[in-house]
Amino acid sequence: MSLMIVKKMDKKSAVWFERSNQYLMLDPFVASAVERIYNQENNEDLALELMNKHHVPREKAMDFISDLKEKLVFPNTAPKRVVQSDLKKHEIPDKFAFTTYYQIHSKVFKVECTTEFEYSLTHPKIAHLEVSNECDFDHTATIFSNGKTTLLYLENELTGSWSREEIHYFEGKFLMKIIEYIYEKPEDNWMGVFHASALSYKKDTILFLGGSGSGKSTSLALLQAHGFHCVADDFVPIDNDQLVHSFPAGISIKENSLETLLPYYPTLRSAAEYHYERLNKTVRYIPPKNTDYNTRYQCKALIFIKYDKHIDFEIKPISNMDAFEYLVPDSWISQNANNVAVFLEWFSLLPCYQLNYSNNEKMIAKVGRLFKNGL
After folding, report:
1. How many helices (H) does the chain have, and how many strands (E)?
2. Which of 11, 114, 124, 190 is deepest in the core (most CB within 10 A)?
3. Does the pLDDT value for residue 374 go beyond 70?
4. Which helix (H) or strand (E) holds 260?
5. What is the rounded CA–CA span in Å between residue 201 and residue 12?
6. CB contact set of 361 (below 8 Å; sequence gap of 6+)
7. Are 210 and 66 in contact (CB under 8 A)?
8. Which residues are CB-neighbours of 283 under 8 A, at least 6 positions away?
């Protein structure tokens, strides 16, 4: 039987179903009822409790149980329809338009791409890590298209195939494999990878989160220029010991942030521009200054950050429940049940804040105080 995990969080309960890999945020009473239905408890016993404790007529109690079963339990526990895999092997091309080598930590990666589109998916974020093509390499990634999908081969073994509509999953898999290789940890040893920016001071880190255009990466670049360290931008790996690891992708900077950042990063003026048509954005990249791959960081807090020209500076606590509903859909979280339990425990104890600002100096000063003294 597949698993179900329930974790109390603020005034709600987070519920995870192994079969569907779905998270729900439910009222604790509803979560408890769902758990009892899931565990196949006698419906009459549950209905009797509803009638006695909550003064619900029997008919309404049975209707309530039926609704939970139909709308929440069955959709998340029904056996999945087996879909025939399309991962048949294809003949690997003899020639590649782009063959690039990158040194990440102590490993050298050879990445082969047949088209500029594939190259644009892999190169820009790690361009600063490119090394001479005469060096020995540890791992090979081969990327090409069969006309319908983009295929990823690692060490000449097919890893996955993605359509254009699913291409962000390809990017996630490619970066996840790099993480596995440089830290020599298989996927089951990772609690998750979060769409956030990780900033460190000594052995602590704070994760900054926010949607596109929130100013997350610009804030990270400003803080890096003022003595903090960028641990990772956009792709933050955390292992099942709840420790944040470095990932050296460049910090992505949009055109409207150049004026703010050029005094600190004059090379941005001549940095290569990359236009992502499918995302409708043009960015340049700042290499992270942190090259420490050995330190593992404790996460001190989650901060949902937003640049707002109408607000000088404000920061306030937000509930883990509200933070959870934003974080989970935008992250990759391990489907290993043990790792899910670790994630829910880790997240339930994290302080979460909303920070809105337009005053850079106040933002930088407050983040420094948060690391040193807390809010």
Report:
1. 11, 22
2. 190
3. no
4. helix 258-261
5. 32
6. none
7. no
8. 124, 252, 253, 254, 273, 274, 276
What lies within 8 Å, CB to CB, of 337 at 6+ separation is 3, 5, 18
Q: What are phi and psi of 293, to 5 degrees?
A: -95, -5
Name the 3-class secondary structure at 241.
coil
Per-chain mean pLDDT for the chain: 91
Record the tokens describing residue 299, joined without a space: 């996460």
What is the predicted pLDDT for the residue at 279?
67
Structure tokens at 349: 């104890």
If phi > 0 it is left, if psi is from -120 to 50 it is alpha, else beta; for residue 129 that is alpha
| Tens-place pLDDT, residues 254-309 | 999 999 999 999 999 999 999 887 767 889 999 998 878 889 999 999 999 999 99
CATH number belonging to domain 190-373: 3.40.50
Task: Using pLDDT thresholds of 50, 70 and 90, give the confidence band for residue 83.
Answer: very low
Per-residue model confidence as pLDDT tens digits over 153-188? 999 999 999 998 899 889 999 999 999 999 999 999
Ordered by start, the domain boundaries in the chain are 4-77, 98-184, 190-373
